[in-house]
Structure formats: structure tokens, C-alpha cells
Amino acid sequence: MSLSALISFSNPLSPAFHRSLALKSPNYSVSAAPVACLNVDVRAPVSKQNPSIHEKRSSEIIADDNKYIVGSYARTPVVLSSGKGCNLYDIEGREYLDLTSGIAVNALGHGDPDWVRAVTQQADVLTHVSNIFYSVPQVELAKRLVSGSFADRVFFCNSGTEANEAAIKFSRKFQRFSHPDEKDPPVGFVAFKNCFHGRTMGALALTSKENYRSPFEPVMPGVTFLEYGNTEAAVEFIRSGKIAAVFVEPIQGEGGVYSATKEFLQALRTACDDIGCLLVFDEVQCGLGRTGYLWAHEAYRVYPDIMTVAKPLAGGLPIGAVLVTEKVASSINFGDHGSTFAGNPLVCTAAIAVLDKIANPTFLAGVGEKGNYFKDLLVEKLGGNSHVKEIRGFGLIIGVELDVPASPLVDACQKAGLLILTAGKGNVVRIVPPLIISKEEVERAVEILAGCFPVLDD
Fold it and tell me: Residue 28 in 3-state DSSP?
């Protein structure tokens, strides 16, 4: 297979053309002018105690986890205790190069000094008041999100799945608002195969993998799954049904790192406009700088009515946000939705610190450059391997599709000091490192990954 056939770049525009999105507010500031976080290589100290005691301690922690925590996670047998930059350390002091970033959450790496300073200072002042009252950080974060996006208003929640739950409710409320005289306004939804939108009952209904849904059925009815990227089928179905909203990820992360095309997203936009349904972009994983654009859909110049974001927004603290146009917001009344913890001063202050850095055009350009460099190295080192079917990606969300399950490779990499994820049907290596990763760390990661590939032949 030729290298040109092996690589799937799906990036319609160079990040160099990215419009300036530095978000500024004259009234509220967490830190000085945003700059990219330096990746300081600070190694965790290794205790001088007997290593066997540490092994026992690690085993005891895992045993306690198995005893006291609901067994919903198939965890890697590593007890992590600290992190700095792109490095993580377990309780025995072993170092790992982190290409998972907490499943695309720790965009600024671990222990970013500006983030730590912002969180520490805010925690000393005010952490939570509920949404009964106003707070300055929540308003300032909303202003930044609006000024740097298509949106007119923001609703805050606590996670990606909560953001999608809110988007489901907002979509149905919008249709009732828009069709006040109809007994049965549009209530159906369109989602796409290989998609992932969350694990709560509404978001779960929009998630295509049957193994996620089947244990909890019946889930919310009225969802139709179409082929991702099949423009003709999508347009035909949307125009023929009573659809409240179309949910789509511009880049499917959990599904296997598949990117949409501009033509596909534009066709969805046009079809939704034709029948009056809403277009929802789920950018929980692919948004906020991971593609080298602040929002992934900006590369396609196609804009939604609603966008859901979460993972990296507060640098590891729980937050979600639903960005909406004024026409959607105008259909929402007091009491239609809410959350006790959402948008509290602490998490919003953390998010401001993250957003101010990532929105810097220089930072975003660097993400695009490092993403291209990462893919080039992967092709150079792995392109000739018989197990590699395709290397695809956009910025620093990269997938290496294999012809065999990836779990042996994940285990081998972990033992060699590299943390990676899987995606798709378990045969895709998903690479989502902190956005601050250096080129030297990229080179080290690819060397470890390539060195572990022989395990796939065993």
C-alpha cells in the first residue's frame, strides 16, 4: 500500500488561515497575556523505601478499588500519583509519556502553572453558590465562549453527556416553540453510525454502539442512525421525517477517529434549514483546539445551531457547555432545565485560564504543526507495517487503524512507559496527547510505539 493511500488527512484548511480568536475581556483576568505552557520535565521523586512495599501498596489500592467501587471500569493496573506536563508518574515513581490526556481532557497537560494559580486563588475566595445567584466567573466565561464562536448564549452543565442531554431537551422545546399550533411537533433525532454522545439515557439513545445501549433498553425512542458521511441518504431521510435535530460529531473520536467532509456537513446544514430542524455539533472531544482550530467545525466553515463542549474546557475539572444561537435560546424559559453544580466560580475560573491559552492563534498554529509532524513520523515508522491499515487524523487527534485488536499493543506500550487509548471496534490506536506536547516528546512516543509493534505478531 502506498503512503498516499495510507494517510487520511481530512483537514480542508491549513490552521495558518485560522482567524484570530484571541478572547479578551477588559473586566476580568485570571493571568497575564496567554502564552503556551512550557513543558517542564520535572521527574517525580522515587521513594527510598523497599520497592516491595510499594508493590504491595499498589496491589492494596487496586484491591480496595475492586472492593469498594462499582465495577464499571476495566482499568489498567497502574496507580497514578502525580503528573507534570506530558508526563505521569505511578506510586512506584515510574514515568509514563501521556498520549491520553485523561481522554482528551488535559489539553494543557498536568500541573500547568497558570491553571494551578487560577484554581488556587479562586478556591481561596469562592467555589460554589448555585445558579440561584449570579457570579462573575460564569458570566466572563460565557462572554469568552460567545465572542469566540457562532453562539449567542451559553448553558453550563457538568459533563459532555449532560451537555448532550441539554441539547436534546432544547431541540424538542425549540420545536414546540416553533410549532405552537401543532399537536405533534417534530420530536425525532438523527445520529450516525460509530457515534458516541454519552451514557445518560437520552445521550445513550443517540449513541450507536448496541453494547452500550442494549443493557438499558428501552432508551429514548425516535432516534435513527444513518451512515456517517453518506450525504445522499442523510439528506433524503432528514427531509422526509419529523426531525427535531441532527446530532453529528465533526470528528468521531470514540468511533475510530473519522473526520467528516465539508460537503457532508454543508449538506446536513442545508437539509436542516429546509425543514426547520436544528443542527447540533458534538465537539466534546474534538473541540477546543485539538484540531488546530478553536472549534473543529471552523475548518469546514459550516456552523451549527447548537454545539456541545466539555472535556478540555476546565483543564480536568468537571464542566460542560451548550452553545446556542439566539433563536434556540429564545425558546427556553425559566425552569426548563438546570443544574446545581454547573458553572460554579471555581470551575469557570479554571476554564477561563484554559480558554485564554488555547484561543491564542499562535498556540493553535502550533497544535496544527505538531499534529502534522506526528502523522508524518507515524507514517515513516509504521507505514510499512503489515498490521497498519490506515493512519488518519486532524491536528492532535490521530487514529492508527490496525487489522488486529490493539489491546496487546496498548499493554506493551504501558510497560514501556507510553500511555495510549483504543477506539472504534478496539482495533484503532487513539492518540490524543496534551496540546502542549513537544516535538521531542512526539519523537519519543513514536519510537516507543514502533518498538512495541512486534507484540502484534505474537
Answer: coil
Residue 21 confidence class, pLDDT cut points 50, 70, 90: very low
Q: Which domains does the chain have, with CATH numbers?
A: 3-111+361-457 (3.90.1150.10), 116-358 (3.40.640.10)
Residue type (1 letter), 5: A
Q: Are 320 and 156 in contact (CB under 8 A)?
A: yes
Q: Stretch 13-31: mean pLDDT, rounded?
A: 41
Rg, Å, the chain Cα set: 22
DSSP conformation letters of 406-429? SHHHHHHHHHTTEE-EEETTTTEE
State the amino acid at position 98 in one-letter form.
D
pLDDT category, 128, cuts 50, 70, 90? very high
CB 304 within 8 A of CB 128: no
10 Å Cβ neighbour count for 384? 11
- What residue type is assigned to position 333 of the chain? N
DSSP class per residue in 63-108: HHHHHHS-S-----S--EEEEEBTEEEETT--EEEESSHHHHT-TT
